[in-house]
């Protein structure tokens, strides 16, 4: 049976939470495979709104087992408070399983994230300040702390010592900060051990056995393709692989198991934090997209940068992820524009370029080449099928599909679960 990957096709915040929740009722497992609580996934169920940061959005579907895979970085205090917040709202979280190999975001990783950003000044990345980059850096440097380390005090102490050795030199000598005491960190981390114990499991084994038993597994990406450490707009990226391959390494499931890769694609474009963004708008249209689309960060509360749809990016997402489908979100936000510009190519140093340039310098110089598509003024939020959409909205979707290289199998016309037009079934 299928393993499906659902991921962001742009710079994050495409509506992955809503899409995951929509499928949650029909799948057995929902797995986060990378990132951490830098993510903010909104799910609206009836009159209830949930903002999930670390937990997979499948946690809101009673039949579904939520999984935090080995590729995720976990801040234990955030995880525990997210769990208790959901429990207070009557959500059963007891099925959650957490990989013992997932790395822990320690308090010093959060400190290093904030201090580094401050030190970078104008050159900062605009991170979420949640310790994501420094935790992945420790993982790659082989001085990371894993969930399983919480259950061996002696190993934990040795590892925290190793991790703080160089960091304390940097913090005190370069950044003029106080050194961080090993004992204090160990004590804080040990306090989480028993609270997390019921969730810790060999998630790789569980997921592979589930697939052998024909269960349906959905991998829910955090962030988006253009924020990928390898395939995104480096260095203005996050420190993990949100792209499809990340699901294999971040959950321990082979690529042969994955049958469908769904790219979540906003009908326009947004970005939070620094970095190039060819279709970004600095005018009233940008303001209007922000206002109508409610484009404010779920995690940091920052205003999102807004711009028109960029088909070059969508094509790129199709390519690097091997997308089989798109889920187009927020089409309703575009209601009311007489004409809607869509970026079909770039002009770089006087030349027309159809595909995303691999050179950072070229991408920084990319100017959007727009095609104007006719808009619509009818309210589309009640549309249930493609034919309910006004002709121009249908033509907009078809044009995007043509340019983006994969079928648009669902369309979001509002934040609620049922505000979705399903065209092709995902399962
Ligand atoms: P994620 O990080 O990809 O899960 O996306 P976010 O939750 O950060 O941002 C998406 C926002 O758009 C949330 O507020 C969703 O409730 C909302 N949303 C999702 N799909 C739609 C849609 O089709 N129409 C409208 N109007 N809002 C949507
Ligand atoms: P979801 O899952 C949008 C951005 C940050 C910053 C860069 C690096 O909700 O789509 P980090 O803290 O990860 O080191 O920051 O990545 N970023 C996101 N932007 N949506 C997200 O998650 C993001 N997670 C990180 O703004 O530019
Ligand atoms: Mg988000």
UniProtKB/TrEMBL annotation:
This is Adenylosuccinate synthetase. The lineage of its organism: Bacteria, Bacillati, Actinomycetota, Actinomycetes, Kitasatosporales. One of its GO terms (molecular function) is adenylosuccinate synthase activity. Substrate binds at residues 298-304. Binds 1 Mg(2+) ion per subunit. PANTHER family: ADENYLOSUCCINATE SYNTHETASE (PTHR11846). Its EC number is 6.3.4.4. The active site is at 13 (proton acceptor), 41 (proton donor), 139. Plays an important role in the de novo pathway of purine nucleotide biosynthesis. Catalyzes the first committed step in the biosynthesis of AMP from IMP. It is an enzyme of class 6 (ligase). Pathway: Purine metabolism; AMP biosynthesis via de novo pathway; AMP from IMP: step 1/2. It is found in: Cytoplasm. Belongs to the adenylosuccinate synthetase family. GTP binds at residues 12-18, 40-42, 304, 330-332, 412-414. Homodimer. Keywords: Cytoplasm, GTP-binding, Ligase, Magnesium, Metal-binding, Nucleotide-binding, Purine biosynthesis. InterPro entries: Adenylosuccin_syn_GTP-bd, Adenylosuccin_syn_Lys_AS, Adenylosuccinate_synth_dom1, Adenylosuccinate_synth_dom2, Adenylosuccinate_synth_dom3, Adenylosuccinate_synthetase, P-loop_NTPase. It catalyses: IMP + L-aspartate + GTP = N(6)-(1,2-dicarboxyethyl)-AMP + GDP + phosphate + 2 H(+). It comes from Streptomyces violaceus. Its main location: cytoplasm. Its cofactor is Mg(2+). Mg(2+) binds at residues 13, 40. NCBIfam families: PRK01117.1, purA. IMP binds at residues 13-16, 38-41, 128, 142, 223, 238, 302.
């Amino acid at each position: 049976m299928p393993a499906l990957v659902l991921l962001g096709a742009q710079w994050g915040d495409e509506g992955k939470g809503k899409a995951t929740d929509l499928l949650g009722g029909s799948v057995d497992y929902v797995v986060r495979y990378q990132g951490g609580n830098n993510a903010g996934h909104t799910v609206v169920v009836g009159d209830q709104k949930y903002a999930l940061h670390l937990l997979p959005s499948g946690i809101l579907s009673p039949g579904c087992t939520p999984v935090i895979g080995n590729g995720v970085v976990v801040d234990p205090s955030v995880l525990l408070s997210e769990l208790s917040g959901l429990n207070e709202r009557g959500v059963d979280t007891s099925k959650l399983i957490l990989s013992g190999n997932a790395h822990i975001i320690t308090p010093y990783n959060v400190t290093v994230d904030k201090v580094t950003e401050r030190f970078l000044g104008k050159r900062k990345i605009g991170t979420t300040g949640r310790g994501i980059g420094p935790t992945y850096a420790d993982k790659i440097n082989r001085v990371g702390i894993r969930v399983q380390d919480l259950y061996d005090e002696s190993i934990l102490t040795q590892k925290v010592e190793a991790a703080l050795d160089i960091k304390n030199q940097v913090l005190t000598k370069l950044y003029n900060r106080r050194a961080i005491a090993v004992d204090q960190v160990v004590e804080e981390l040990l306090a989480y051990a028993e609270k997390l114990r019921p969730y810790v499991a060999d998630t790789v084994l569980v997921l592979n056995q589930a697939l052998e038993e024909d269960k349906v597994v959905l991998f829910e990406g955090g962030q988006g393709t253009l924020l990928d450490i390898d395939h995104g707009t480096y260095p203005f990226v996050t420190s993990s692989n949100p792209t499809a391959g990340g699901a294999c390494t971040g959950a321990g499931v082979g690529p042969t198991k994955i049958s469908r890769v769904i790219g979540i694609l906003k009908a326009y474009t947004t970005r939070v934090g620094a970095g190039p963004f060819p279709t970004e708008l600095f005018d009233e249209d940008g303001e209007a997209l922000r206002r109508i689309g409610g484009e404010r960060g779920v995690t940091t509360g920052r205003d999102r940068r807004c711009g028109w749809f960029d088909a070059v990016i969508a094509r790129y997402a199709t390519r690097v992820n091997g997308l089989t489908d798109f889920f187009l979100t927020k089409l309703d936000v575009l209601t009311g524009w007489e004409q809607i510009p869509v970026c079909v190519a770039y002009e770089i140093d006087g030349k027309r370029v159809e595909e995303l340039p691999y050179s950072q310098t070229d991408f920084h110089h990319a100017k959007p080449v727009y095609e104007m598509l006719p808009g619509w003024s009818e309210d589309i939020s009640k549309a249930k099928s493609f034919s309910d959409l006004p002709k121009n909205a249908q033509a907009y979707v078809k044009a995007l599909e043509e340019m983006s290289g994969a079928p648009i199998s669902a369309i979001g016309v509002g934040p609620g679960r049922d505000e979705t037009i399903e065209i092709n079934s995902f399962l």
